[in-house]
Each structure stands twice: as structure tokens, then as C-alpha cells.
Amino acid sequence: MEKQELSYQEFTHLRDLIYRKSGMFFPDYKQEYLSLKVENRIAALHLASLHEYLSHLENHYGELQNLFNEVTVNETYFYREETSAEILLSHILYPLLEAKPIIKIVCAGCSTGEEPYTLALFLKERFPLLLQRFKILACDLNTAVLEKARLGRYRAYSVRNVPERIRERYFTAQEGGEYLLSQEIRSMVEFFHMNLLDIPFFSPFTGSDVIVCRNVLIYFDMESRKKVIKDFHDALTPEGHLILGKTESIFSINELFTLVHYPQTIFYRKEVHP
Question: How many CB atoms lie within 10 A of CB 151?
Fold first, then answer.
């Protein structure tokens, strides 16, 4: 099959469709990237042409989800933000244990699960007798990565930063150099499918004490970011916290949060107005 390249008109048509349905925006310089991803879907479906694929996309609702799965980026690994996790436990979660019976944490854009599982490992080590007090939820738009997350099976690259003691205790080496996370840790995280652009008023996010959303908003345009941040704010409990990636900031688009500085990291606290 010949290489299938999107014309600019086809590119903008697909870009607008993806944007309307997910909030992800692909600027013009991503035309070649999107063409490559569409080419992968054409090959997977054994279709003969780009025209045939676009027709298939219009007539098969499930293919849009497959395209989402193809175009989303899923770079992540265990213990990626160790300092941030330590501060979360000591400065936010520990004080909450004295104030609330159940503490709810949601990881938005969790990819293959390394981030919520890292948090579960920290909780297991720090509060082994209080695990029933924590509820960890994790979501992603990409259904394929959610399936991988539930399996809890990872390549050596993903666990390279895990301390040896933790790896020996909670991971089992598998054939092919992979590692299987223990059922004990996997059971601490509940995964669900969610489009962040379409968070309902009552959702798994509702009543969250902490929402972690790292390196996700960078794929949204300004309007979509504002909507997602507002939805996060509405879902958080009074003085709940939002945690973003190191290079992300919401201050240019939102005044509903207060910036809270900690050593080597920044969190956002929901403001409570009288």
C-alpha cells in the first residue's frame, strides 16, 4: 500500500473532529504526525485508501475511539515525580487523615497506570494500616492504555526508577524482561474511561480531595483548558488540591486556585469564598 498522506483539507477536517470530541488540538505542524497515525489505522483495518478510511470513520463510531488511542501520547514511568509524591503524603494527605474518614484521589490522564500505582506504593509503605481510608481513581481517554494499566505488567524501562527494595517486594519478574505488579497494589486503584472535555456534573471526580493531572492540558487549546480546570475546581472539596506537571501553569487562565509553594514543587489549592 502506498503511503497515505492527508491533504491540508483532510487534516483540518480530522483535526476539528478530534478537537470537538476530545479537546485535543493539533496545530498545523502536526499534519505529518496525524497522517502517520491515520496510516497506522488504515493498515490495522486492511483498508485500501485514505478515502476508504475516512468513510469508515464516519460510519463506525468505535473507530473514533481507536483513533484517539492512536494519537494520544503515553510517556510515563514509575517514580517519575518522587519528590512531589513525598510532599503530597506529608503536607496534604497526612493532615487529611485527622480530618476525614475517606480521602479521595483522582489521577486524570493516567495512561498505563504508573502514576496512580506509584501513589499506591507510597501509601502502602507510609500508611500500611490505613489503606482503607484512601480511595484512588484513575482515568484516561485512551481505552488501550487503561487495559494495560489494569493488567499491571510493565517493561523494565517503566520500573527503572523504582527502589530495589520496593521492586523486590511488589513486583514479580516475568519472561521477556517484564515485571508484574502485585495484585495487592493493583487492587488499590480503580480505573475508568473518561473524556476530560465531557466531565458530567456528578462524576467519579466529584468530592475529590486531590486531582493529579500531569502533562495532559498541554494538548488542549486555551478554551478547553479553561473548561477542564473549571470542572476540576467544581469537583474538588473545599481547599482540595490540583497537581499539574512541572512546566504547566493555570494562572493565566484561572483565578479559582491559590498557588502553594513547597520544596521543588507547586500545588494549586481550591479557594473557598464566603
Answer: 13
